[in-house]
Backbone:
């Protein structure tokens, strides 16, 4: 797969977290982050299908310093109506990623991870904030996800952004048959949820992570 980008230099020169659409050329780095984060991972072909064939899919990557927008030929016409995103050119170090499916009445987070050495730096929150903005832009009323019952750190992050536990999917994860907690937000245009989102955004701006 080639040499991994030098994360140490990447962190030292970082100024702000930027987010852009995931490219096919990002898959190798995304899969490495996934291997470092989860017991079971997707094959490369799954990401290729998601990026090129799944019209309901939205995938984004985060890097740690602002850069000009990355140009890419548009494959899915309705994406041009989304918010513009800026990011690093393909091949630069990726700090984390998030994948959404556009469902009838929700944006469903299907995958989400940050490099282990860069966690607790706000990168995951920036990716979540971008997911909320996309859902709002697409007029989707809520965000949902599944998370391992044992992953209390992730659950705490989601709760900070307004996700609430609604139930459990028994033996959801194929690697060890662990249960998954089902989490969802209040309606995104609920005043309480909007106030929470604005508070989280102010925090990120205060830390210099969000423009």
Residues:
């Amino acid at each position: 797969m080639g040499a991994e980008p030098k994360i140490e230099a990447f962190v030292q020169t970082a100024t702000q977290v930027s987010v852009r659409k995931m490219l096919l050329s990002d898959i190798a780095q995304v899969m490495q982050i996934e291997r470092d984060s989860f017991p079971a991972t997707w094959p490369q072909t799954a990401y290729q299908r998601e990026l090129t064939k799944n019209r309901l899919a939205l995938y984004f990557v985060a890097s740690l310093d602002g850069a000009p927008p990355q140009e890419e030929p548009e494959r899915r016409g309705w994406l041009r109506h989304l918010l513009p995103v800026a990011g690093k050119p393909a091949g630069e170090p990726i700090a984390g990623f998030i994948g959404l499916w556009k469902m009838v009445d929700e944006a469903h987070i299907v995958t989400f991870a940050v490099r282990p050495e860069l966690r607790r730096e706000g990168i995951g929150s920036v990716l979540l904030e971008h997911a909320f903005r996309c859902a709002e832009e697409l007029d989707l009323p809520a965000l949902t996800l599944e998370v391992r019952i044992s992953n209390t750190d992730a659950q705490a992050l989601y709760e900070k952004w307004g996700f609430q536990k609604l139930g459990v999917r028994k033996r959801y994860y194929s690697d060890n048959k662990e249960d998954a907690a089902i989490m969802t937000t209040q309606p995104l245009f609920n005043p309480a949820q909007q106030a929470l989102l604005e508070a989280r955004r102010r925090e990120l701006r205060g830390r210099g992570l969000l423009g």
The chain has six helices and seven strands. The beta strands are 18-21, 57-63, 96-102, 107-114, 143-148, 164-169, 180-184. The chain has a mean pLDDT of 84. Helices lie at 7-12, 27-37, 44-52, 123-137, 152-160, 191-206.
